[in-house]
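User: For my dataset I need records formatted as: sequence, then structure tokens, nothing else. Please produce one.
Assistant:
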Amino acid sequence: MTDFWDSVLTFSSRQSSTVGERLLAAFGKTQAEEKWDGSLVTAFDQWSDDTLTAAIRETFPDHGVLSEESSHVFPANDWCWIIDPIDGTTNFTRGIPLWGISLGLLYRGTPVYGYVYMPNLGHHFHGYWSGDSGLAMPTGAFLNDQPIHTCPDSPAKHQCFSLCARSLQVLQKPFPCKVRMLGVASYNLLLVAAGYAVGGVEATPKIWDIAGVWPILQAAGAVWTPLDGQEPFPLTVGANYRDRPYPTLASNHADNADIFEPLVRSVAQR
């Protein structure tokens, strides 16, 4: 399947770069509206979603698509792409240069490949994780084609831990790390994969927020802890994922997951 995976990576890089170039031209210059869940959406979210969906259907006609701005029902296709056309729309509209484009490729309901592009940073993340799929495929996690891994460190005041805007209640008690909050679910979690942070938590991410980063974190050696006790994958054919949250803790190794989980468990109790 080498040719297949080469085509997947080439497609992801080319399409995210093409879409990212246009989004950069609109960055900080567009108006947003509020959606059903209180998040923001712009005309460029829809344009990015439509453009990526059309490109997938043309290049991989036997693959399904689930995306933030259009189709929320998981299809019966063995292969399915999940799109987050602009992760960090609030940052995008406010001129804050942390936002990205996320693509996840699922096989029979579980992500095996992810690609996240942060245009302002010039950061291209991708990763492969076969898990229990039985697929013959590459392995590893990468940032700009260089291998990345979680760091081995323990919690300390000089180590970083990333929060989301809906997880601030964890600060009601002393926290063992230096806290950061970036406003981009995918990048929040990717800090752990890249070794920049020892942990990160997202209280209410949706499936398009996590599908692209899941295989990258797994391949980089991170521990993924579902804070509601429910494993996120595999997805169920015919289920609608528009409103399903996935409260998530990402940790750099298992010992830290045991330390962090009691401290952040409350973010799932909303």
